[in-house]
Amino acid sequence: MCTLETHGNIFLLTLTGTDSEHRLSLTLISEIRTLLGKVRSESKSKPGSVLITTAQGKFFSNGFDLAWAQSKGPNQFRDRLYHLLQQFKPLIADLISLPLPTIAAVTGHAAAAGFILAICHDFVLMRKDRGFLYMSEIDIAITFPSYFMNLLRLKIGSPRNLRDVALHGVKIKAEVGVEMGIVDSAYDSAEKTVEAAMRLGEKLRLKNWNGEVYGEIRKSTLKGVLPTLGLVEKEIVTAKL
Questions:
Q1: What's phi and psi for 127, nearest 5 deg?
Q2: What does the alpha-carbon distance between residue 209 and residue 32 come to, in Å, rounded to a whole number?
Q3: Concatenated DSSP letters for 131-155?
Q4: Which 3 state secondary structure label does DSSP give 54?
């Protein structure tokens, strides 16, 4: 359901498998967290490491596995959805605390939790020939968990953006996402998006930043969401002067 490749100091995490929508099931969430743990561990011996997350096929991720949540009937839907939300939260905490730069190469639709997964990366690159960013909650009548809304406030910029994304369920294509400041850059195809992410990764790699310091500074820029994710800030001073 996902793979991890290394290209020098660049880690490439790819969502794969027969489920082309890459629905965030309990299994996929667990697999991503396992691979992020591997990235965290191996990056300690690879200064200047970078993570790129992408996906095969039409979707980056179409959100939670709602079919599983609904499979035991309406009486258990709320509890199962809540369980997915609670299991997804530490995955977001993993990304936000990861001690290296992160890039999302969004090669297809990213909806709901898939949208959140994308914007938790430091950079979002997106293909413009297919795919959109979309928070579907208003259309399927589900409220936002607090950590989703906190992230959206911090990541997507203006109150107008927040209104359009959260209250209007606007489907944002790549070039519009660039105009809104949600997407960093847009490309003509999935292949070119991943290639651009690799080029950006190479540039970031050359900075050779202290990974632990980088992760803590990232956390400080997202202070508003840390308590809901169980994260705390740490002060780090190194001898690199």
A1: -75, 145
A2: 24
A3: --EE--HHHHT-PPPHHHHHHHHHH
A4: strand
162-177 pLDDT, tens per residue? Answer: 999 999 999 999 999 9
pLDDT computed for residue 99 by the predictor: 97
Kindly give the pairing relationship between strand 10-15 and strand 2-7.
antiparallel
How far the first Cα of the chain sits from its last, in Å, is 43
Torsion angle defined by CA atoms of residues 12, 129, 56 and 50, in that order, rounded to the nearest 10 degrees: 10
Domains located in the chain, CATH noted: 2-229 (3.90.226.10)
> Cα(72)–Cα(76) distance, rounded to whole angstroms?
6
pLDDT interval class at 74 (50, 70, 90):
confident
Instruction: Count other Cβ atoms within 10 Å, centred on residue 187.
Output: 20
Amino acid sitting at position 167 = L
Cβ-proximal residues to 179 (8 Å cutoff; 6+ apart), any chain: none
Predicted TM-score (pTM) of the model is: 0.95
